[in-house]
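ok so heres the complex, two chains, lmk if somethin looks off
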Amino acid sequence: MWPPQVTADVLFILRTVIAMLLALAIAFRLDLSTPGSAAVTVSIIALPQVGMVLEKSFYRLLGTLLGACAALFIVGVFAQHQYSFIVAIALWIGICTAAAEWFRSFRAYGWLLSGYTAYLVGFAAFIDVPHAFDIAVDRVSIVSVGILSAGIVNATFFPTRSAPLLDERLRQVVRDCTALFAATTAADPATLHRKQSRFALDLGELESIRRSSIFENPISRARTAGVLSLLEHLTLLLGHLQIVSRQLDSLPARAGEIRQHAIAILSRCREILLEWEAAAVDERRATQAVDSLQRLLKETRLCVPIATDRDDNSSEDHAAAIAIQRLLNDSIQQAIAIIYSYTALQNPNTKLPSSRIARVRYPSDSGHALLSGVRSSTVVILTCVYWILTEWPDGYWAVLFAAVGSELFAASPYPRRDAWQICAGGLMALPALFLCYAYVLPAADGFGMLALGLTPFIVFGAWLMTRPRWALEGSFYFLIFLTGLNLDSVMRYDFVSMISVGTGSVAGLVIAMLGLAVIRPANLRWRAQRTARRLVGCLASLRGSPTPDTQFEFHRTVRDWTAQLISLSCDSTGVARAESLAEIVLELGDVLMTLRRIDSQLAMPFRAELARCLDETVTGILRSDRATLCSLDAELAALYRRTALLTQETESVARRDALAHAAGATRTLRLSVQALVETGRAFTEESRHAA
Amino acid sequence: MPRELALGGIYVPTLLILFVAAAAGYVVIDWVLARVGAYRWVWHLDLFRLCLFSILFAAAGMFVYR
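and the predicted structre for the whole thing:
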């Protein structure tokens, strides 16, 4: 038998061929103006899973509708003013580029598409104003035909669904939790960081599969709340374990007993999870595992007596023990929530406690989005003006590809590589175009013969798309091949137009690259530094009192900025630095949330002093100025000493507990600020070196 | 039923309106079928859902093209 991947690739190629031919057949039957564009739509939304195809189709349709409406509006307002019309279209493309940068995944794609749809419809409508509405309807119809064909074929012909993949990956990630506990207890930082990074990546992938699965069927849609809840707890567990490992590392050598006790608890938690996973995931097993974990929760309280009973007892050990106890507690609570969420997901009829689900928001760099928008608009305006003044015959295609290139390159960390890939795809399409023009099309008598003749060329393009490294080449191969063919019911064999598409598209891409190089070049280091600042800026959301969603939203945002920072890192050192910064920010956030939570249990005037100090800490960290951070260190040291002293002096047990927690958190806060100074220095030195 | 309807001065094919209406009806029926667990008894879920929509749209279209 063939390996599963080969079978999946063959099915993907088959689906793409059938969908493209179906789209062409419908477009010819409906007598649409450019039937090739329907096939281009199929090639653009050709993805391995049905959910992904439907999700991308949905946003493609929305983007096309929005772009067509925008084009009609602009033509309606500026039908008599050529330059105003160009500026308006360029502005719309700029807005769409900025929005594509702001949003994520296929939503970003929808915006990107909306930009160049406005150009495609707008220019055609500007030349033929009385038929503007028909042109817009024709474009929407072409895209709809492509979407319908791709959707129907992908959903019915040996579909590869996202839902089973989601189940498999969820099972894997839940299994990886035990590996994460094991890595936290092992004294091997390299393995620990590898496991944590892998886990974080898996969570990101799971989120994208979940989004796609929603579009598949109502059964998947009904499960999405459960999946979100599980992902939330997995994200929090990862964060807590990262902080625990940092705290264990920062323990002084004399506190070996506390470390051993914490490791014993983590190992026991791992064993319970292992036992639970090994058996069938049902309500009874879940309840047993949760009972064991709740017993373990009581044992975490032993951390503090260990610190207190020591002969060389110091307040610092006591504070560290309290901080570790709280973190172990939180980790076990998350493990319990994971067991409940996963069991409820696998057995929808179970009656297990459910938690509320926080809304997932994706952070974006507004400055970079704005810059990309301005760059796209400028590139389009300049190319249009050059096209009009010189009456450049390839101008139409050059502007189109300059707009597409500007939008695509703005989102990519490696625009030069993407430009080469696009050109390579175009170059591969040229011999196919000539072969088709010279031999296939003249012999194609009727749609059957045309389909037969086109099939080998479509198979080649679809095969390219199955190779992860050649996917972009495959997409642009289809774009140039099908656009260059200019298929119609009555073929014109316009070689000049075919060459015009080729030269215009290459010229457009070169212009887009020039725009990227000249208009405020956003190199990787510059973007990485901005992203690092945004990552630290997540702490700004912790200024006020924490709500039930604050913790997850904070962890989720930090995780997202970290993923962006890692994607912008050139080497393994950059990746390691990004991960280390993320851990520090997570730790700082965790401490700030803890202090805000126990704030109400403290008495005045210490409470006011703590609140002022926390505000100053957040402001100082956000300013990221070395001098401020150093003075902050001294202030936090003073606060810690005062808290420790107050803990000894206070008689009320409840208040003493709160003060002890505050002391533990303040100690961690100080250590984190020190670590931030070191990591911040590394980032600053690198940017200075780059400058 | 006329083959074209004027919406705000623009002639729109009646089939397009029926397509949207059929899609809305389909979403409701699809949700109900999933809710009552009817899809457990379906062999090819996507094919069934496609046919369901086709039946709804074709039935509505029969009013225009009789």
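quick notes: Chain A has 25 helices and no strands. thats all i got rn
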